[in-house]
């Protein structure tokens, strides 16, 4: 072994030299085959090209509408489900979770008046309630407590002065 036969560990493979005569094995057609789009200069096709047939993405139906990223999904509680609680009790979201009326701790709760009738006087604290549900609770001398919702004036309009 001589010094000229030693190879570096980082030695790179030499690139394929095409179009340098038939003796090299890469002459005449220069590894491009005969004729056709791929044999020509600039004969590349864009990603997703399917040989002229209607591409997959154009065959898919267009989506209608959009999904609102700010949508709030409420857990529904019907007034008839509240009969499991004692008379004159104060019900919170934690109580609803412990009785397995709701399933998620951090998701807001909405009270509706459907499926069954309320027969007890109770006070309930929820995030939202329908007008009919509030009316049903008040008819039983009960009460619905909702969190205060603050409305801010639009920032681009000046506030009115008295």
Residue runs with pLDDT of under 50 for 5 or more positions:
none
Number of helices: 3
Strand order of the largest sheet: 1-3-5
Largest sheet: 3 strands, parallel
Q: In which range does the helix fraction lie? A: 10-25%
The CATH topology of the domain at 86-145 turns out to be Ribosomal Protein L15, Chain: K, domain 2
**Morphology:** elongated
Top CATH class of the domain at 86-145:
Alpha Beta
What CATH architecture of the domain at 86-145 would you give?
Ribosomal Protein L15, Chain: K, domain 2
The computed structural class is little secondary structure
**Mean pLDDT across all amino acids:** 86
Radius of gyration (Å)? 37 Å
Terminal CA distance reads 101 Å
Structural notes for this entry:
The protein has helices at residues 56-59, 93-98, 131-139, and strands at residues 75-78, 90-91, 109-112, 123-125, 128-129, 143-145. It is largely without helices or strands. 12% of the residues are buried. The protein has a domain at 86-145: Ribosomal Protein L15, Chain: K, domain 2, CATH 3.100.10. Helices cover 12% and strands 11% of the residues. The protein has a three-stranded parallel beta sheet with strand order 1-3-5.
Quick structural gist:
This protein has helices at 56-59, 93-98, 131-139; strands spanning 75-78, 90-91, 109-112, 123-125, 128-129, 143-145.
């Amino acid at each position: 072994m001589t010094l000229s036969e030693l190879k570096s560990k980082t030695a790179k493979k030499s690139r394929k030299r095409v179009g340098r005569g038939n003796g090299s094995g890469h002459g005449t057609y220069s590894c491009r085959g005969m004729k056709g789009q791929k044999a020509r200069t600039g004969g590349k096709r864009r990603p997703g090209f399917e040989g002229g047939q209607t591409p997959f993405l154009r065959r898919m139906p267009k989506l209608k509408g959009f999904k609102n990223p700010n949508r709030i999904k409420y857990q529904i509680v019907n007034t008839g489900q509240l009969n499991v609680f004692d008379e004159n009790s104060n019900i919170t979201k934690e109580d609803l979770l412990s009785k397995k009326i709701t399933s998620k701790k951090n998701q807001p709760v909405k009270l509706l008046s459907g499926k069954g009738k309320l027969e007890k006087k109770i006070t309930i604290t929820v995030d939202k309630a329908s007008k009919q549900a509030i009316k049903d609770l008040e008819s039983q001398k009960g009460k619905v407590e909702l969190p205060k919702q603050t409305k801010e004036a639009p920032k681009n309009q000046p506030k009115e002065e008295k």
